[in-house]
Structures are given as structure tokens and as C-alpha cells.
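The data are quoted verbatim here:
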Amino acid sequence: RAGWRGMMLRLLAAHVRMLTNRVRFASAADAARAAALGGIGLLILWGLEAGFERLLRYLQDEVPLIGGLLILKLLSMIFLTFLSMLVFSNLLTAFTTLYFARDLPLLLSAPVPRRVVVAMKSVESVFYASWTVLVAFAPFLLAYGRVKHVAWWFYPLAAAALAPFVAAAGAAGVGACILLMRAFPSRRTRDLVLLFGVGIGGTVYLAIRFLQPEKLTRPDQLMNVLQYLSHLDAPTAMALPSYWLTACLNALTIGLWRDAALFGALLVGTPAALWIAVLALAARCFYPGWSAANAP
């Protein structure tokens, strides 16, 4: 066991050295381009944080009685959206990293167990598929903390809760990719999944518009106050990690440590079980799918 873990760590270390060498030996033009893009990105993140804080502060201060429920519902909807984005992003990225990466023939022909290659490529896939979503979420988390006046320890605990959330989404995406490539081992499968995802995204958008979520801020459009409050208090997908993360952060905000520990345990245990299942699935399905997809 220590042997394959050591091999996976050495492979990951090689990727880290490759990235650091790319940074060290970058040309002046590349450095200037990266600095310009980084500055633009920081300005965008600052604008997002200001917009989120203005929205949350309005709900907190200007909407009496139900402002807290509105913020909690908004947080739950955002996490559900991020979960969907992460699963789909991991699914698409896994096609490239697990099946069509240029270094795969070398890795699979080397004296390295296939589960080590799958595990290392899965970590790479989750990283590439998730970092942009996490960066986009940082302004909202900062705005939420400022509006709720949380203590400094909230942010590292929130980051610790986000890690298994991302890992669970990554396991779902990688597992779905392995199943699809085992059933349809073709380079066109990724393109078909992308088209299918675009269609699903459009359908979800139309469904959301049909449900008219703006009614959440207009209780006069519902039949009565009790219906409005029950609509707000209804949980959003309780069986998904997005709800557990929402409940965990809310418990941390108001100091319910037992509830935070319970939902934190669910967040940690679920991706652990999912990744065990994914690696077991990869042991049976990865190589047949890869060899069929890359056959001349």
C-alpha cells in the first residue's frame, strides 16, 4: 500500500515541478500577459464581491423578518448550481485527462499500477475542473462573512468544508466519464456529452424562468404569509452535498457546533465512499475503454 501511494505522490510531484518550471522559465511577454490577466481577474472578483455584499446586505437589513431565510435559500441555490457545474466540468475534463492525454501511453506502459495512474489523473482532472469555480465562489463567501459579521475562524472552516464538496463532485464526474467511455469508447463521446449538457443547461434555465424565482422577494405574489414562509423554509435537495454544505456553513455562522459536525461528517464521508467506488469501477472499466477509444 505504501508503494503505490509513494508512486502516486512521485507522479504528482513531477506535475508540480512541470508547472513550477513553466513559471520559472516563462518569457517576459508571458509574464506580462499573465500579470495583465491576473489584474483583470482581480478587478472582476472585486466587482463580484461588492455586488454580492450589496445584495446580501439589502436582504439582511431591508427585508424584515425573512431576510435571513432569503439569504439561506440563496446560499442553497448557489451551492446546488455550483455542484451541477462542478460535476459537468469534471465529466468533460476527465475525458481529456483520463483517456486522451498525451502522456497516458507512456504511463500505462510503465511499471506503475493502473490504479495509480487513474488516481493521479483523477486528481489532475478535479484540479483543472474545479479551480475556476472555487475562485468564482470566493467573492460570495467573503461577502457572506462580512454581512453576517463572522469571526476569522469561519473562513478556514468554510474552506475545509468546501474541499470534500469539490471532491464529491469530482468523483461523480470521473465515475460518469468512466461509465460512458466503457459503454461508448469513442472520441466523439465528449462532443456528444457537451452538446447534451448545453441542451440540459438551456432546459434548466427555461424551467427556472418558468418557476419565477423573483417571487422569493415578493411575498404579496403568493397566497398568504404562511405559504411564503413554507416556500422559503423548504430545503433544497436534502440528499445532495450542496444542502449539507449550506447547513454546515449556516450552523457555523450561528454557532450550532453539533449540527456543523454532523453535516461536516456527511461531507467528508460521502466523497470518501464515492472515490472508493470510482477506483473499484476504474479497475474493471478504465483500461478496456481507453484501449478501445485509442485503437488505430
